[in-house]
Design a protein that fits this description.
- The protein has a single domain, classed as Up-down Bundle (Methane Monooxygenase Hydroxylase, Chain G, domain 1), CATH 1.20.58.2140.
- Helix 4 crosses helix 5 (114-121), helix 4 (82-108) packs parallel to helix 6 and helix 6 packs parallel to helix 9 (200-216).
- It has helices spanning 4-41, 52-58, 60-76, 82-108, 114-121, 139-162, 168-183, 191-198, 200-216.
- Helices cover 73% and strands 0% of the residues.
- It is mostly helical.
- It is built from nine helices and no strands.
- Keywords: Cytoplasm, DNA-binding, Nucleus, RNA-binding.
- Belongs to the translin family.
Length: 221
């Protein structure tokens, strides 16, 4: 029997093991940058709306690093192996997208588009549902990032009152309601995404409670 077959198989196993370690290393760096950017962006919860631009400007260096981190990761992945290893980095990419979505809301009070995600992270959102020919951000990762925005908005509504910015919760409530209405048009098949979408109503309720408390106290009409 020719044992060379097993030698060749072991070489392939070694190569795959090395690749996995390289991917893990790239993801570690990506997560590290996301945590730093998230910590800086969290300061938006402790300042009035007039000062949030300073917060988003402060994390621009982290977005540059995120682009580099994602570039390093994408160089390791061939299109044919994209879904084989996809679960390894999906959460990290989702975190990066969530940062973009929240930063754009803080800057422009609007929803980040797939084009915005590509501009910030230099990585395309695969909205066409086509075969993978490059490293992409999946549609589910983009939608999960939008769901994460609801949680940030509910926190922001509460914290805006704390910093005496009592008009902002009304703006947040209008935006969140419109965004929720848009989400309801989707027929979600992904179980995880569906469960996360179902949790949005609790964030909406928290925002409405802030509105109610302000009205009861006569602080807004």
């Amino acid at each position: 029997m020719d044992v060379q077959v097993f030698v060749d198989l072991q070489d392939r196993l070694d190569q795959e093991s090395t690749l996995r370690e390289d991917i893990k290393s790239a993801i570690t760096e990506l997560n590290k940058t996301c945590r730093l950017a998230s910590a800086k962006l969290a300061k938006a919860h402790s300042v009035p709306k007039s000062q949030t631009k300073e917060v988003t400007d402060a994390i621009k260096p982290q977005f540059e690093t995120l682009r580099q981190n994602i570039g390093t990761l994408s160089n390791l992945i061939q299109p044919v192996t994209f879904y084989k290893y996809h679960d390894m980095w999906s959460n990290a990419i989702q975190s990066a997208c969530s940062l973009v979505v929240f930063a754009i809301y803080l800057d422009d009070a609007r929803l980040a588009t797939p084009g915005d995600i590509q501009a910030y992270l230099s990585c395309r959102v695969n909205t066409e549902n086509t075969d993978i020919t490059e490293f992409v951000i999946t549609l589910e990762e983009y939608l999960n990032a939008i769901v994460s925005l609801f949680n940030e908005l509910s926190r922001l509504a509460v914290n805006s009152v704390i910093v005496n910015d009592i008009q902002r919760p009304q703006e947040i409530s209008t935006f969140a309601s419109d965004l929720y209405a848009g989400f309801q048009l989707l027929n979600l098949k992904n179980d995880n995404l569906r469960r996360r979408f179902d949790s949005i109503k609790y964030d909406i309720k928290k925002i409405e409670e802030v509105q109610y408390d302000l009205r009861v106290r006569g602080l807004i009409s």
